[in-house]
Amino acid sequence: MMNGWIWIVVALLLAALELVLPGWFFLGAALAVALMGLALLIGIWTGGLPLALVVTALLTGAIWLALRRIFGTNRGEVRRWTRDINDN
Question: What pTM, to 2 d.p., does this model score?
């Protein structure tokens, strides 16, 4: 399971899943898994599988937050107004 090519294939599958179910989560997971796959292929990552999964999960969360910050919310999402334009 520590073969980098398997991680790259899983990253491509997650990216394809993002096309079907958009929401930035699967794209964040795909980028994190691809980064881990590249780290395995290059030889940078020497830790075991459990630690690789933890690092990938943390990367997924960080990348998801970055994507939400960069691209914002979807047009279909409800926006909550906390103040009125007529309030002084």
Answer: 0.77
